[in-house]
Specification:
With 382 residues, this protein is an all-alpha fold. The protein contains 20 helices and no strands. Helix 12 packs across helix 19. The longest helix has 31 residues.
């Protein structure tokens, strides 16, 4: 009888109920909120669902992220091996290839002035960098945190890994992806606060047609120019442009389809679950994480403001031909930020169509964030 009692007692004490802390329960609750937002309100479900589920798993069963040296059998947890691909910057680079294969760079080519709007939206990165220094982070940590302002999760992970900030990678990645998912909530109030209704109603001229030759030459020229100036950007900009060349060349349809579909979704699963699994209560619930979340929000807000501000200036210079709303799409949340520009413009005038105009700054923002990351890597000699 005692054998049965002891066995049952051991089984009961092996359940998670006896091993979780209040912090684990809090993180489980946060994961459930993320799942609710993703499934019920469709807030970037491709990102939030795997991230939230990874968060759920690690706070119920921490050993799923255990390193091999911490396990008696020398075998690490499943998601630890996924996470290594983040630390080695493999998954972020592959994400960029998929984004390039999925994205039409035509609006940017047709309106090169979009590069300036994309650059202006990087204001949040540099504001957050100096704020992070002020809050006590060292230079490399501040640089890794600041990239959240570009609303670009893969670049945030990439830079954190390159600068050796793996202890901060989880909070940085979760903050970046969370704000990317909340673009439809965060951006509109800022856009409306700094534009007039008359400005939001501005209709822009139709973009000129872009030839196939231009679309083929663009990724090649951008790779040469950007990577010659900042070689450290090659893993991100190079993969982005390679994916786009797959798309535009017309001779590697199978590679384009693989990069934009099967490979892209596999990488999203691996990256999302591993990022979510980096948010155990012990690693996530601390003052540094709170600072990162606040800095990320400030960076995102300033990035949106920077793009809209330059949009207003261009509106004045052009005699009212440029709608300032497209400047907010300069953050590199593709294509969500462009859709938000379209939505806010349509609220002012239902006949206004800004989506394609906003895609120019949106794509420029992806390149701009990668350049910002390369700049930090060059500064710190990585």
């Amino acid at each position: 009888m005692s054998y049965v009692t002891d066995t049952l007692s051991n089984l009961v004490h092996q359940t998670a109920f006896f091993n979780l802390t209040w912090g684990n329960y809090l993180m489980i609750a946060v994961a459930c909120v993320f799942l609710y937002l993703a499934i019920r309100h469709d807030f970037e479900p491709l990102l939030l669902v795997p991230i939230a589920f990874g968060m759920l798993l690690v706070n119920i069963y921490p050993d799923i992220m255990a390193r091999p040296e911490d396990m008696s059998n020398g075998v690490g947890g499943l998601l630890h091996y996924f996470y290594i691909l983040d630390e080695f910057s493999i998954l972020p680079s592959l994400i960029f290839m998929g984004v390039g294969a999925m994205t039409d760079f035509g609006p940017l080519i047709a309106n090169p002035i979009s590069f300036l709007l994309g650059a202006a939206a990087q204001l949040g990165i540099y504001v957050a960098y100096f704020l992070a220094i002020f809050l006590g982070f060292n230079g490399k940590a501040a640089a890794a945190i600041s990239i959240i302002g570009g609303a670009d999760g893969p670049t945030s992970i990439f830079l954190a890994g390159k600068l050796g900030q793996t202890t901060l990678m989880g909070p940085i990645a979760v903050a970046a992806y969370s704000y990317m998912s909340l673009v439809p909530i965060i951006q509109p109030p800022i856009m409306k606060a700094f534009t007039t209704e008359q400005e939001r109603k501005i209709k822009m001229d139709q973009l000129r047609p872009v030839s196939k030759l231009e679309k083929i030459l663009f990724p090649i020229i951008i790779t040469i120019v950007v990577c010659m100036i900042l070689p450290t950007t090659a893993p991100l900009v190079g993969m982005l442009m390679l994916g786009n060349l797959f798309r535009e060349s017309g001779v590697v349809k199978q590679l384009m389809e693989t990069a934009s579909n099967a490979m892209m979704y596999i990488v999203v699963i691996l990256l999302g679950t591993s990022v979510g699994a980096s948010t155990s209560a012990e690693a996530f619930l601390n003052v540094a994480t709170l600072k990162i979340v606040v800095l990320g929000l400030a960076a995102f807000a300033f990035g949106t403001f920077g793009g809209v501000l330059l949009g207003k200036i261009m509106c004045k210079i052009s005699g009212g031909k440029i709608n300032p709303l497209i400047g907010s799409a300069g953050v590199s949340a593709v294509p969500m930020a462009a859709r938000v520009s379209q939505k806010v413009g349509a609220e002012a005038d239902p006949t206004n169509f800004l989506l394609m105009h906003a895609m120019g700054p949106n794509v420029a923002g992806v390149i701009g964030t990668a350049v910002a990351a390369g700049t930090f890597m060059a500064i710190f000699g990585v």
